[in-house]
Write a structure and sequence with these properties.
Number of helices: 11
Structural class: mainly alpha
Helix content: 55-70%
Order of helices and strands: HHHHHHHHHHH
Radius of gyration: 16 Å
Oligomer: single chain
Shape: globular
Distance between the termini: 34 Å
Largest sheet: none
Amino acid sequence: MPERLAGASNPQSLIRLMTWLSPAFPVGGFAYSGGLEAAVVEGHVSGAGELAAWLETVLVAGSLRNDAILLAEAHRAFDQPGRLSEVASLAAALAGSAERHQEAVRQGDAFLAAASAWPQPVLALLGANTAYGVAVGAIAAANGVSLGETLVAFLQAQCGQLVSAAIRLGIIGQTQGVAIVARLEPAILGQAEEVCALGLDDLGSATVIADMLSMRHEVQYSRLFQS
């Protein structure tokens, strides 16, 4: 395991992380595609190879990278109210489109509501419209989950959710989806290790097409997903 990811959480913390990022946890992630639906409709992604390349690009140079950086900052600031509030405000402001903003804060608010089953003081510091990554980072830290494990699990869950969206869009089957998730493991681990050493000054995106497609999805005539 990469050096920065070597720190392990205790078993109770780890099982909580697994629960929070399970597809069954009620955050409503199934309703969103992060702009992937527009990429499929406009022909940028039409099969397994293109999907894998798309996901890896978003992971290492796009919205998922920024989400991971914001998660890491929230993890470090979970017991610092002022700093945590600033991270939450920044995360909400950085959404590239109205739909991406709604995707982030609706999932974040749903996550916090469900995570209240594990009471922690940090819940009182995170108000409405908290971005999903920020909510996950702060709650994980408050429950003793290491940053490295939180990043790996979060990024894997996000990639898995996008693969699930692609299956429902009909461009890949389930067997191909599993193979793509397996193929992404090195990129997920590498990105999680890198983000452990990054801060807010490292925020940025180089995925202009993906960002523009996310905006165009808002006016797409017929669609399955909310983003």
